[in-house]
Amino acid sequence: MSEMKWYVLRTAGGKEKKAKEYLEKEIERSGLSEQVGQVLVPVKKEIVTKNGKRKAVDKLLFPGYVLIQAQLTPQLENIIRNNVPGMSGFLTEKRTTTGSQFERVPVPIREEEANRILGNQDENIDAGAETLVNYEIGESVKITDGPFSGFSGTVDEILEDRSKVKVIVVIFGRKTQLELSFTQVTKE
Prior knowledge:
By secondary structure, the chain is an alpha+beta fold. The chain has helices at 16-30, 74-83, 111-127; strands at 5-11, 36-40, 43-50, 53-60, 65-70, 87-90, 93-98, 101-106, 130-132, 140-143, 152-159, 164-171, 174-181, 185-187. It has two domains: 5-132, Alpha-Beta Plaits, CATH 3.30.70.940; 140-187, SH3 type barrels. It is built from three helices and 14 strands. The termini are far apart. The model has no long low-confidence stretch (mean pLDDT 83).
């Protein structure tokens, strides 16, 4: 048996995870599990603050694509092309001619490229989630939590590493700087 190689599969936009699930079920149902190493939808964890609430989300690194590590046989290729809803075939294909017919042949990605993508996945697992900052210096914000709830202010400084923002608020006619977490403020 030859060694497994990585292939990139095209999917319908927004259907990557569903296509992955269908593909895994179809491979298992067909008894081809020993030919497939893994099926992967590369994602990156991010923390997004919306309406004053922090939420960890998975952001797709390659929207519209799924990776598969496999020993590609005609039966497995047929399943990928024809039996998986939302999957439209392989990303890299070369055409060969057999008589007057053109035949599409899947081409695996280079080992270095696969290692780069997989290394990126490992970094994301180790690093945890990345905070996505959606505030800008000088922007008006409203405090939604804490003793100054209901006050409005202006962003003076953003401390991404600590997930905090410094806000200038006018209290009793004087400008006061408050240090608040991203979850305590919202855009006005």
